Amino acid sequence: xxxxxxxxxxxxxxxxxxxxxxxxxxxxxxxxxxxxxxxxxxxxxxxxxxxxxxxxxxxxxxxxxxxxxxxxxxxxxxxxxxxxxxxxxxxxxxxxxxxxxxxxxxxxxxxxxxxxxxxxxxxxxxxxxxxxxxxxxxxxxxxxxxxxxxxxxxxxxxxxxxxxxxxxxxxxxxxxxxxxxxxxxxxxxxxxxxxxxxxxxxxxxxxxxxxxxxxxxxxxxxxxxxxxxxxxxxxxxxxxxxxxxxxxxxxxxxxxxxxxxxxxxxxxxxxxxxxxxxxxxxxxxxxxxxxxxxxxxxxxxxxxxxxxxxxxxxxxxxxxxxxxxxxxxxxxxxxxxxxxxxxxxxxxxxxxxxxxxxxxxxxxxxxxxxxxxxxxxxxxxxxxxxxxxxxxxxxxxxxxxxxxxxxxxxxxxxxxxxxxxxxxxxxxxxxxxxxxxxxxxxxxxxxxxxxxxxxxxxxxxxxxxxxxxxxxxxxxxxxxxxxxxxxxxxxxxxxxxxxxxxxxxxxxxxxxxxxxxxxxxxxxxxxxxxxxxxxxxxxxxxxxxxxxxxxxxxxxxxxxxxxxxxxxxxxxxxxxxxxxxxxxxxxxxxxxxxxxxx
Length: 598
Known about the structure:
This protein is α/β, with parallel strands linked by helices. It is built from 21 helices and 24 strands. The strands form seven sheets. The chain has a six-stranded parallel sheet. A five-stranded mixed sheet has the order 11-13-12-14-15, sandwiched between helices. A five-stranded parallel sheet has the order 16-17-18-20-19, sandwiched between helices.
């Protein structure tokens, strides 16, 4: 054992390794990505880990391991749980033999997600237990206990960390090396492992009865606690508990109720904790999950307790909580005179506004610009997807008309085509997204005779979530060389009429490819292939010849590269940002931009 200073995601990984996890699968998604990446960094005898092609595949791989009696963990972010919901809902009915933990990282804010959904709701919907850690240290302990509960009750168990727990740092006492647990192996029994309506009916009744037992078990678990003895109580969960505890350390008499295992409802614990309470404030993030649980409990037992929270407007209905909001909201609830000490910032400079943009030299910028230039004067729809390239919506590119969920760009382009056949329908998907959820959309397009252009922005990595490998990179999570899966061959095998691969930084060739495909009927595909600038740095920088520059600002107005800016009316290139991609030089009609010495 040694003390390790790690982030929350690493603490979850160390907890799983300490529990003897045999298999870990998942799909990268902020804020959960570092969990699996930590798994492979530590000595882990007998533990297999993989980046699966998507969350559904990851869930099913882990389920088979759990059927064998092995301990399995599957990781994703909250929107990934939507993708994995099909196997998870059935898995809740079938059950498991070995411990199975589903880590679904929620993203209050949201900071880097399409939605602000609450995984606790999903746990209740699936009728499976959920743990809600308030710190990295607790996440480390919880994941180990989650395996125990999973094996005890033969059910998957969800661990629901949030961004501030995932990315916080703490010191953890953990082993220096790990060994996976022994397991029996799969024992064939079609009456147990093959889901049929009769089995589902029987198991549903069993689940409802079992969940009452788990709720009683949770009532005595170490993650549901309370302190203080006042008539007013603060009920908190997850990282919100940490904020509440920090504020109430100066008010130890105030009853603070922590609900770290919120579902199935720990009824006996809550009744004990609420004894003598006349008014309770639920301080939680995202949905009023605990608040509604309390209201049901109070109604069931006819308690005379007023419950306040999101439903009463005392706590904001969306977004993150923090230490300041805890002070303001809890202080108001308790009727405390909280005087805020404000620092005079009137003379301080305003922080720079830095909206998210595509990196300088990003090949996606060139891909978007090539399509925009080729389609000038023509009606077109541009369906985006989930990835760095979503930032193609920003001005001046303005090349993302829609973005719904991962893989939807390819199928939504078909819908636009069927409704407006006079326009050219484009979809944009990254290489990782294509493998994760784009292939079925291509098959659907060919099968249903759509007329569209599939643009695969292939930068040879999963850039948005930290440059994880994928089936097209030639290596897997364990750094083993594997056969590259060809995007071009998949497209041709699916029946795409024409597939063109082009370097988007070769602007003339890229524009020509778009124009050619736009004149053909049916499903066409353009693979814009150029590596991400974060992993492959081009040599040299670009510079502006001030004597040739006429100040037309075309380079700035058309592509929006962050390395280009105006200083005293003169276009300047920031050599600290420039990667030398040369796209700006191809736009300059007076040849005022050229390459600097390498």
